[in-house]
Amino acid sequence: MSKQPDLPEITIVEAEPVEEEAIEAVTAESLGLDLSDDPEEAIDQLVAALAASRKEADSYLDDLRRVAADFDNYRKRAQREMGGLVDRASERVVSALLPVIDSLDAALAVETTTETEEKLKSGVRSTRDQLLDVLAKEGLEPIETFDMPFDPSLHEAVTTSGEGNGELVITDEFRRGYRLKGRVLRASMVGVTPRKE
Predict the structure, then answer these.
(1) Distance of alpha carbon 101 from the chain centroid
(2) Domain extents for the chain?
(3) Is residue 32 over pLDDT 90?
(4) Which DSSP state fits 149?
(5) Are 133 and 162 in contact (CB under 8 A)?
């Protein structure tokens, strides 16, 4: 047979009685109503007062709903504006870093002749990759160019070679273009040639 756990002792405290004088009776006078002595008229007056009170309460409720909707719209607008500020600040910082990336790309394009130069180039490549990884997390992505159809919304043609009426295809990239969160931050400077059919 299992032993019953010891239960804590419960003390019952009796509530003090409420004095009748502490409860204020609601009367017509306390509500600011001057009721007729005729019961029928008094009922009509009470119904009219109740209807007026409900109408006033509905008006306050409508005002409260309107204020709540205005506040919700304000909160959403403030969030959009804050997001826009963050995006513009991010865009300014990333735009300022694009020439740094260009310089690193130019350094990587130089042919190395010694082992020391190759080690230096490897360090530059690593730095460039780290920078691009950080910026990719912010939404930066390079625009594809080589052997792609020319798109004036993404590419800026600075040279044209060859003749023909075919679709223009990118054959050279002079400066890499980038998108930031899907929007073109800087168009690619490219050379194009008509595709041979």
Answers:
(1) 28
(2) 141-197
(3) no
(4) B
(5) no
Distance, in Å, from the CA atom of 124 to the CA atom of 114, rounded to the nearest integer, reads 15
Residue 163 CA from chain centroid, whole number: 48
**DSSP one-letter string for 14-61:** PPPPPPGGGSPPP-TTTTT----SSHHHHHHHHHHHHHHHHHHHHHHH
Give the pLDDT mean for 11-40. Answer: 69
Q: Give Cα 98 to chain centroid, integer Å.
A: 25
For the segment 15-42, the average pLDDT, to the nearest whole number, is: 71
C-alpha closest to that of 110 among 102, 121, 119: 121
Structure tokens at 32: 């600011």
Contact 194, 162 (CB under 8 A): yes
> In the structure, what pLDDT confidence band is assigned to residue 195 with cuts at 50, 70 and 90?
confident
Fold held by 141-197: Nucleotide Exchange Factor Grpe; Chain A, domain 2 (2.30.22)
What mean pLDDT, rounded, does the chain reach? 86
Q: Are 141 and 98 in contact (CB under 8 A)?
A: no
CB 143 within 8 A of CB 183: no
Whether 75 has a pLDDT exceeding 90, the answer reads: yes
Contact 124, 108 (CB under 8 A): yes
